[in-house]
Design a protein that fits this description.
This protein is of the alpha/beta class. Helices cover about 30% and strands about 20% of the residues. α3 crosses α4.
Length: about 300
């Protein structure tokens, strides 16, 4: 598999292959796949939604109240155990950001703002009402940006180890540099339990190429300014729906102090910290993550 030609637009390039926020779930497609027949899981439907020059793969799983999920730089999360569990009670909606898992980046895209407006179109096309909006890391930033514009389609907001603001000064490292930090150091920062981290040595060449392509897309959306919008912190007061921040206690990418700063900027927001978890509490402590999500969703 070759890297998408659009990838060269990123200033980071394929050297991003050491970024640790990666999950592998294959290339996007269309049609219906019955995972229940193969793995005892709920039926999954994947469609391609054409929007403004971009074809968005959208995975639907389960039935019930809708939950729109924005993945982070690690790529799609729809095949993780927590996703299967939540699909028992909710209709989980998982779009794949352009540039991830082999999808193409529109020529006019150069930062997260393009993704924000693309997903505003997606939300309109889905005709969501009273849905829950949830985002992980970069996807949390994306969800917050959308929520400050309008919450008319949503009843609640969940941000998981989200980036998006810079609470410190111009020379403070509020967010670890996932593009330049040595691999071992970054693994230690991102994971409490290193055994659950990606094992690059065991990956196939195709998987490693997917890592590199995903990292190019991640860099495109988050590189400048790095992992935040300087104006977002002055807009977060506009979020007018119940908001839960879920955080890994041992997250070294964005710490719990960062989480507290983000919480304080969103009216009425709550922070729920999960012990023995780093930047991926939904992976390292999936049962605890599910429990906290369900408590919030049903409250």
């Amino acid at each position: 598999m070759e890297l998408p030609s659009e990838a060269v637009k990123s200033p980071i390039g394929v050297c991003l292959a050491h970024d640790l926020e990666v999950q592998f779930h294959g290339n996007p497609g269309s049609g219906r796949r019955n995972f229940g027949e193969r793995f005892g899981m709920t039926t999954e439907t994947t469609t391609i939604v054409p929007l403004g020059g971009a074809d968005i793969p959208l995975v639907r799983r389960g039935s019930g109240p809708a939950v729109l999920v924005f993945h982070g730089g690690e790529g799609p999360v729809d095949q993780l155990p927590f996703a299967e569990s939540l699909s028992s009670n909710f209709e989980m909606l998982y779009p794949t950001h352009p540039g991830f898992n082999g999808s193409l980046i529109p020529e006019h895209f150069d930062n997260l703002q393009d993704l924000i407006f693309l997903y505003l179109d997606l939300i309109d096309s889905l005709e969501l009402q009273h849905a829950i909006l949830m985002g992980f890391s970069m996807g949390g930033w994306l969800a917050a940006e959308i929520a400050v514009m309008s919450t008319s389609s949503f009843s609640k907001l969940v941000l998981v180890d989200s980036v998006g603001i810079k609470p410190g000064g111009p020379f403070d490292r509020d967010i670890a540099d996932v593009f330049a930090t040595p691999v071992e150091e970054l693994l230690n920062a991102a994971w409490h339990d290193r055994s659950k981290a990606p094992d690059y040595a065991a990956m196939t060449e195709e998987e490693l190429q997917t890592v590199a392509a995903n990292m190019v897309a991640h860099g495109l959306y988050t590189w400048e300014p790095y992992m935040h919008n300087p104006k977002l912190q002055h807009r977060l007061h506009r979020i007018d729906i119940p908001t839960l921040l879920v955080w890994g206690e041992n997250d070294g990418i964005v710490t719990t102090d960062y989480a507290a700063s983000l919480r304080d900027l969103i009216p009425g927001a709550r922070l729920s910290v999960i012990p023995e978890a780093g930047h991926h509490p939904h992976i390292e402590q999936a049962d605890e993550f599910i429990e906290r999500f369900l408590e919030f969703a049903s409250g």
